Amino acid sequence: MATATRDRPVTALVCALAELLPDECSPGLDRHHVFPISAGGYPDGPTVVVCDRHHPILESMARRVLGGPRRCPHPPGTHRYPDGRETCERRLNSSP
Questions:
Q1: 27 to each of 30, 50, 51, how far by Cα in Å?
Q2: Which site among 31, 55, 88, 92 is 20 to 30 Å from 73 CA-CA?
């Protein structure tokens, strides 16, 4: 995701999630596509301005709403067994 100031001018220099989440915003701002390009959205489609700290949270919420699979959050080499990453992702995506 490119920074907001590089692609298009940001009209409101404030994170859209600033008042909804308890932690402080980080200084960098990103544009998050409301309809992700990977899910058939357009590059020129509507976007939401979020800070670097809240962007992953917004991505996670979008995956939940759009029904996309959750990826293993651990860095490569963390799992001890060859199929550890797949097991982790299967556990993340199983119904509660």
A1: 10, 10, 7
A2: 31
* 96 residues of the chain, pLDDT tens digit each: 334 444 555 555 688 888 888 888 888 888 888 877 766 778 888 888 888 888 888 877 877 777 767 777 788 888 888 888 888 888 877 754
Which three-class secondary structure state does DSSP give residue 67?
Answer: coil
Is the separation of the CB atoms in 29 and 36 below 8 Å?
no
Range of the domain at 31: 4-93
Run of H or E residues at 65: helix 55-66
What six digits make up the tokens of 69?
């699979």
How far apart, in whole angstroms, are the C-alpha atoms of residue 45 and residue 49?
13
- Total structural domains in the chain? 1
Of 33, 31, 37, 34, nearest to 8 by C-alpha is 31
Task: Flag whether the pTM goes above 0.70.
Answer: no
